[in-house]
Amino acid sequence: EPRHLTMEQSGNYSFSSTKRTISVNAGSAINALSLCQNNNKIVVAGRSLLKIYEIDSFNQIREAMNLHVGRKQGLNMSSSDVVWSPKEDNMIATAATNGAIVAWDLNAVGRNKQLVVLSDHRRTVTKISFHPKEPSRLLSGSQDCTMRMFDLRKKECTAIFHSKADGVRCVEFSPFHYFMFAASFDNGNVQIWDYRQKSTYLTQFLAHKGSVYTLNWHPDEEEKNKIATGGRDNMVKIWDVGSSNKQVCNIPTTTSVSAVRWRPTHRDQLATVSMMLDFSANVWDLRRRFVPFAYFEEHSDVTTGIVWKPNDPEVLFSCSKDGTLVMHAMREAIQPWLNTKTRGLDMGAGGRISLAGEHRSIHTRAQSPTGSGLPVKLPGIFSWKPGNFSMDSDWPGPAPASPTAKFSNSQFVYAAKNYILNGPEKELSFKQLCEHNASVMERIGDHNVAKVWLIIAEFYSNKILLKQKATHTSLPLQRTYSDAAPDRSNRAESENKRTATKSRTEDVHGSQNLFNGDPDSEVQSDEGRLIVEDYLTDIARGRHSEPDFYISDEDPNLWGYGTTSDAEFMSEQEWSLIGRVPIEAFEKKESSSPQSPSFTDPDSDPFIIGKKLVVKSSEWPLAFDDIRDDLTMKELRFGCFSFCICRYFHSHGDIQTAVCLLVAMSSYPTHINLPLDDAETEHWFSSYLDLLFKNQLFVQHAEVVKLSRLPNIRMLSASSTIHTNCKACQRRLPNTRSWSCDRRSDHDHHVNKPVLCFLCKSVVKTLYVYCQTCTFGGHLGCLQAWVERSKNRGIPTGRCSNHC
Amino acid sequence: RLEHMVMVMGLHPQYLQQFLETNDHLLRSSGALPYEYRSYIAIMAAARHQCTYLVHLMEVQFLLQGGDREWLRGLDHVPAKLRALSELNKLLAHRPWLVTAQHFKNLTEGEPSTRWQHSHLVQVVVLLCHFHSIAIFCHGAGVNLELDHPRAHAFHTTTSTSPRSNTSSGAATPKVDAKSGRKSPASPVCVHTAVRFLPCEIAEIGDVEVLMERMRKLQEEEEDVTTEERSRRFEIEKEEASHGLLPVSGPVGGAAYFARYVQEPDFSYQDFAKRDAHAEIPTYRAQDYSWDHAFTVMSSYYNGVAELLDEKYQTAYNLTYKTLATRDNVDTTSLRRAIWMYVHCMYGIMYDDYNYSEVNQLLERPLKLYIKTVSCFPEQTTRAVYDGFWKQFRHSEKVHVNIMLLEARMQVGLLYGLRALTQCVR
Q1: Which of A123, A301, A354, B57 would you call most buried, defined as having the most Cβ atoms within 10 angstroms of its Cβ?
Q2: What are the distances in angstroms from CA B304 to CA A29, A179, B29, B134, B307?
Q3: Does the distance separating the beta carbons of A232 and B352 come in below 8 Å?
Q4: pLDDT bucket at B176, cuts 50 / 70 / 90
Q5: A712: domain range?
């Protein structure tokens, strides 16, 4: 028997030392392929083709045997599937489109190596499978809706399994459950059978919409209950068939999936091929489901079969209708994820959002998932810029695959519920209000924000009054500063200390340019400039508020002994801190974000600006003297201070504090002009309102709307109708009778009809009192009357064990 | 008012529902093709099979959807883009095996104004096949003209005894329009000439018995037919289909009206077995490009319709009332499959796993004649052919056969058309 190795065929071998992907042309369309147990031989089968190829030690493929010989063989040779016995090296079986199954003995002498032809099936055999342990046990699935078990020693059918479903598309023995096999069907079902029990399946579940073309048991023993299925609905689904048949995962693909194979030793990876249109073999990773992990594009027609080399997960064999058998090497696969943009986003418990990506210039947008449902609404978008967290740019590997969205908002809800925003209504002075709110934050444990409330109270306690009689002349606050005058020598000392220590960092940053007015060094908006100057004044006044916030940010424990809420804290405690803390704080910051570009961006973070200014403190005595006696500037200073606080919180994602501060301040009749951009504030408000709505804090939502001074926000209160839905049919209830649905006479309403009072038999519209065990209840009044009357007459009221 | 076709099909409500859903989707749902294009393609398809009824229906539909009346004057008055479909229409209607990737290539290349996109072509193929098969159904079941058709009345005055409705109406030349204005006596809602005739011949019960006996035998028979034998039987069946059953009636008049919508009006079905030898068109192996493949192509290019067609096809294929003439509780699977296979066989589609001798055993000669006439030369169907087969069967059962012919024929068109398109896309 001549080997069919002509010159032409050998020309199809692509020998290359660098490229390991090797393809062989088998001559005609291939429908299936299978590897032998030693993984060194591969059999391919097609309509007029049955050949065995050998993979030699140099990883070359050459033809070893051609079983499709002699005269026209007929339809028995028109194979739709082929399998190599996993236990015996000389045994293969083919399934024919006419329903015959042919077993081959490769060791047989002579030309005809057919062992037996089994023509039990009446229609096309779609898939055959050898038992993983017993070499003579063969299972087949056919379009005639049956699965049959054959014993190749007896050469006969030993069992018939009636699917009672539809044409069988795929059968496969479980590699680890000895008696178990799975079968998939044209009607979308997957059945698990125990072959000792021939009458019916163990379980069945609907896996896909339309035919399930393929299934594959997981090759890993630890995952032995996992099955991957692929079907006409363009999906690959992973099922756990252990105790309950639940879907573990799915992969959406672009076309029908005709074969799926788990990748050995890679627990989360599998390869698929498509039935039409897409000729590539795709490898998917369950952890990144929407982009193929890798794919191979060697074929020019539909890829019909794939098989991994069990002992080498880097090698995938595939065959195609274009007649080629290809050995793919994983390292030569096209890996689309290498070229995709990856982003990771997560929200921390403190409201911080971290974003990971390959550039630090990536912006992120956050949008409220629910929206407040009102027509005049700003889109609830805020944006953060990466760079606040140095980790973003230094993220070592690719971004995490999927951000775990677990924003814990219990703090948010607690604060929203317990904050007092409307001081005048509660007859509280602004200071009392702030103290209350600070104590709320203390209870949560957010000392920073608590302190901010107290500081704000300190600033404005004399400015914001319960009644409209604000005096602009003598501010006790100013006195506080003058009182601090005796400390001035003390302060000067610390100043000296500070400039001395700062001069170092100053040089490093080289940002003196800013004060020299060099336009090239800093391109910044007017707004930015304003902030800078205002900070200056703050610093000049010795406020040092920003650095302190920063300190607290870095190390909250610093506040541990500074929790007094009076002005003494401001004048004494603060000074005592100044000397040592900022230095280490700056060093920290510096080391964490060296030469970060956002340093030069004044808009990125008000906090950074603050820091920058402190660095240039050598200049400040000048500004200090200029501004000192200017009352209007002082007012502006307060405003800017609060503005900066708000900005600071906003930029850290804490929209709640920013908005609540503004609301609390504006709730008093005395008006404070904050240098705030209306559009920006409106933006904050709408974001906060969205969050409230999302958490169903409708009362708080209404309160904020009411207290806001922004016209656009106030307008929201004009249309704050919240519609109620019918519990049974989810339709909106009519405005006139809002407890009873229009469609209550429909059938399905009787299943979930509205609650009736047991006593008066009318619909309970308001309070409904009921026993939690037996759900027996009614109007509060009715129930009270009933209990009373029952007592009077001595009738027991207990209907269930709970004595309701 | 329900259309006559719907009323006939209403004998099988289960199928009717699927059919109407699909029909509605094809003509009225969102899709790439403009509505007037869809109606016009439908007219072209129906005209190919000279189905007066359907052409008229779709003309009305075309105008209702704001189509240009000018277009109804014929192919010379429509955009070149539509006219280019004529060749495809011709081949799909009569000899679908001649459709090649080249035809689709020609349509997708050329002038930008006449160029078709692949997704549009999938829609075109589905539309063409759909209306070819409806035309087959209308001819096969003898659906009368709608009452508002100019010639519908004239026809009723003459047909109470005349053999076939639409054949005779087709015979009327367009010139006699004046005559058609004549008032006819208010006829009842006569939908279907066939339905009006109650089954009166229950004489030959023996026939049913024989058929059932054969089916039972096939069920029990252990298959030991060699595959070569099977292949040979397919050839025999193919040969016989071509030789034995020549349609009885000659060419039908009235073609002049349809000629405006078609090119080469004389082009018609040619037996697959007698196909041009030099063309060397191989037998279509169903397993190589099955319905699953066609489904995948459709679902990726023409979203939504694939599921509808699949459901419709499944419904038609599995539709059974487990009755056979006067008998109840009969498994008619093999009979239904034989009809299906016979249609596919005549169009050269071979199933490896089907034993084609079943066709011979189960389908009596008059039935074969009917199937052959309806699915290959639908316009030549006559009352005699319809009455000739299954004499003691109910009309609903004959309509059932018609539905199967409709679906089988539609699948043939889709398989050939989409296979060629797939090759073109590649």
Answers
A1: B57
A2: 31, 41, 10, 20, 6
A3: no
A4: very low
A5: 409-460+637-718
Catalytic residue among B51, B129, B345, B376: B51
Its ipTM equals: 0.75
User: Which of A277, A304, A322 has the highest number of chain B CBs within 10 A, making it the mutation to test binding with B?
Assistant: A277
Q: Of A668, A700, A718, which residue sits at a domain end? A: A718
Range of lowest pLDDT (A157-161, A433-437, A641-645):
A641-645
pLDDT at residue number A260:
92
Residue A169 reports pLDDT greater than 70: yes
Residue where the block lists tokens 């007698």: B274
Flag if B292 and A80 touch (Cβ within 8 Å).
no
Task: From chain B, pick out residues whose CB is under 8 angstroms from the CB of A76.
Answer: 227
Q: CATH number of the domain that A792 lies in?
A: 3.30.40
Give the span between the Cα atoms of A590 and A508, in whole angstroms: 10
Q: Note whether A78 contacts B: Cβ–Cβ < 8 A.
A: yes
Q: Do A80 and B287 touch (CB under 8 A)?
A: yes
A438 domain-assigned? yes
Q: Is residue A332 part of a domain?
A: no
Number of domains in chain A: 2
Final residue in a domain of this structure, among A659, A692, A718: A718
Q: Is residue A603 part of a domain?
A: no
If asked whether residues A711 and A779 sit together in one domain, one would say no
Nearest to A76 among B224, B227, B425 (CB): B227
Concatenate the DSSP letters of all residues of A230-293 into one string.
EETTSEEEEEE-SSS-EEEEEEE-SS-EEEEEEPTT-TTEEEEEESSS--SEEEEETTBTTS-S
Residue A242: its pLDDT value, please? Answer: 79
- Averaged pLDDT, A128-139: 90
Poorest-pLDDT segment among A82-91, A400-409, A766-775, B336-345? A400-409
For A280-291, what is the mean pLDDT?
Answer: 87
Contacts of A97 in chain B (CB under 8 A): 285, 287, 352-353
Nearest CA-CA distance, residue A74 and chain B, Å? 5
Inspect the interface and report whether the beta carbons of B295 and A74 lie closer than 8 Å. Answer: no
**Strand A353-356 versus strand A344-347 pairing type:** antiparallel
Q: What is the pTM of this model?
A: 0.60
A198 vs A792, more confident: A198
Kindly determine whether residue B353 and residue A74, on different chains, have CB atoms separated by under 8 Å.
no
Residues A642, A711 within the same domain: yes
Mutate to test the interface with A, among B352, B358, B425, B426 (most CBs of A within 10 A): B352
Task: Report the mean per-residue pLDDT for chain B.
Answer: 75
Q: Indicate whether B358 pLDDT > 80.
A: yes
Average pLDDT, chain A: 68
Q: Please indicate whether residue B51 is annotated as part of the active site.
A: yes
In a shared domain, residues A706 and A769: no
**pLDDT range class, residue A214, cuts 50, 70, 90:** very high
| Residues A706 and A762 grouped into a single domain | no
